[in-house]
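worker-03 picked up job from queue 'complexes'. Input manifest follows; two sequence lines, order preserved.
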Amino acid sequence: MGKRRYVLRKLVQAFITLVAILIFNFFLFRVWSPGDPVSFLTRGQGANISPEERQALIEEYGLDQSTTGQFVEYLKDTATLRLGASSFYQGEPVMEVFTRFLWPTLLLVGISTLFSTIIGIWMGIRSGWRRGSTFDRTSMIGSLVLYSMPEFWLGMLLLLLFSSTLGWFPVGGRISTNVSELSGVGYALDVANHLFLPVLTLTLAYIGQFYLVMRSSLLDVLGEDYITTARAKGVSERQVLRHHAVRNALLPTVTLVALSFGYVIGGAITVEVVFSYQGLGLLTYTAILAKDYWLLQGLFLFFTLAVIVFNLISDFTYAYLDPRVREA
Amino acid sequence: MQTPPLHVGADAPIGPPVVEEIPQPVPPGTPRRIRWARRRKALHRFWQSFRKDAMGMVGLVILVFFIGVAIFAVFADTSGTRITEATGVPLQPPSWDYPLGTDNYGRSVLTLTIQGAKVSLLVGLTATVITMIIGSAVGLAAGYRGGGTDTLLMRITDWGLVIPWLVLAISLASIFGQSLFIIILVIGLTTWPSTARLVRSQVLSVKERAYIERSRALGAGNWYLVTRHVLPNVMPVIMANTVLIVAIAILSETALSFLGLGDPFSISWGQILQQANDAGASTLGAWWWLGAPGVCIVLVVLAFTMIGFALDEIINPRIRER
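worker-03 finished. Artifact:
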């Protein structure tokens, strides 16, 4: 199969997945979810809403239509990226609420993924290359313990130690309340100060899986014949590791980086709650507490879409790095 | 032709390493008794390998301890867990009367943690049963039947893998309500895809074996082949995976309870941590409150993971050689 056909097939598969998710999303949040969205919407204004206003809202959201009609309405809403209205935020379009909370999460997840990947891969290489060494055994136990730890509990411990006991970092939030007085460098420092503990938590929580995959993948490669051949040729150990072993062992780890994105999101949700860090995770928590199903639906769609895109990136990277995939 | 669960022979794809044994005289008795004798022997051999694995044994000891705690919790007095019947002073560090201190209502953290063991283990184990049933059924059907069934089932599995599980679980739990039953169902319904993939790949290799063909030539039907030959040979891999899934299920329950989606009326470790976080235990410096339930989660998850790794090493000769 040629490269183009491979890319095309993956794109078609991703599209089918997206359609399935859209249908599932509709039923989950608009048909099966309990309660009438308008009553949630008008809850804030109390009982003093006139029947006419109520009727207008019902019509505005297309709730008077049949399920099919509502589905069409929902597709239009999704295609125009409005994604319906949030009842918790007094009818503000979900997309607008969403963009406000997006950047902090991207920052948090991006930096943590970067750090945990680099550290995890480095540890995995060292560990696999010197199997059975003290470093190997210590990092194996360490990463198993970190893997067994709920991310939010790790966050609570770090908060207890570094914020309330040592007082080195703020106890939560994304920026200080007096942020308007700060400018340029001061603002950046303030953001970094608030980011430090959440990033540390997520980085520690995800080093384990990258480490374990890199280690076992390197061990797999080291058992291959071409490593023996390389050694027999008289290639130095350093060269064997760098040019023969690590390059091949990196493949599964690279895909894992993209695939683990779904899990990283899961971790980010609970960790943002611990640190009251105003990102998409905290927004999800707010939506759960307020039973704001339309907001939850928008978040669900976004997270799923993000995972689909990352899967595609992972497939393409893999195909680019490993020519055997394209031919298969 | 009968096959014991842990089939050991020249063409065994998985199972303990082949130990060449002197053919022993066939014990007298019915085929059933012979079969059970072989199973017992296989189990004994398996236990001998497991005993040598230090990591697996440590895991087993931790697990037995917590199962003991959970059984104790079933019979223990639960009045100390009710807010109205709390006897202690709120937020006290550990003392003689309250070895693990008290929470913000004056309840003993020790009592709460012991009660939490019950729910956390119950949810973890039952959710795993659901995962294993769905995952094995889908994997077996897809791998054994192949063709259109395989394509369809694997596409559904891929969807399951794509959807970020915590977000799906959050959505399902918040829409269908907060009860232990829903939580178990939600965890079971969101964790099966990886099991299905694993089982399918094993089935694909097992079904090409010569003894399957021989058995088919002798007139064995599909049902007989699947239940007597394919399933028993895939079983060890399913078992090792089950143990690892329990660890994931317990962590899932913890995360869902922490987000306030658990059953408000049953105490689990995740729920204790949620209450601690809501009350700002970290900021108040109440290390004893969040310490005990967290350490318990880590120990139990670690125990299951270590046992799972040990099982993997015994049944997967490839890892063993390293």
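worker-03 released lock.
Confidence is low (pLDDT under 50) at residues 1-13 of chain B.
The CA atoms of residues 76 and 115 of chain B lie 8 Å apart.
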